[in-house]
Amino acid sequence: MEALSIDAETWKVEELQVKLRAEAADQIGAFWNFFHAGRVELPTRIVQSISDTVVLSVSVDELRQVLSLESTPRSHGTQPEGMSHSP
After folding, report:
1. How many CA atoms lie within 13 A of 64 on its CB side?
2. For each of the chain's 87 residues, which pLDDT tens digit applies?
3. Single pTM value for the model
């Protein structure tokens, strides 16, 4: 997990930003290479549990649908412009 998105009024965690492993990126069609791991923002409603890994309560196909409906092009793994990298 890389970052959290928290609702300022309710203090509820709304989304998690996670870094993808190569296999996961391949399964959902996200960009990934050795120099830039793909990242996605996951709504917490589809998260089952979090430990060293994030376990989802949806299938890969359902995840693809959620990502295409709710995420920006950058967050669901499109290749970044140029070689710049933000921390």
Report:
1. 10
2. 889 999 999 999 999 999 998 998 999 888 888 888 888 999 999 999 999 888 999 999 999 998 888 755 444 444 333 333 333
3. 0.69
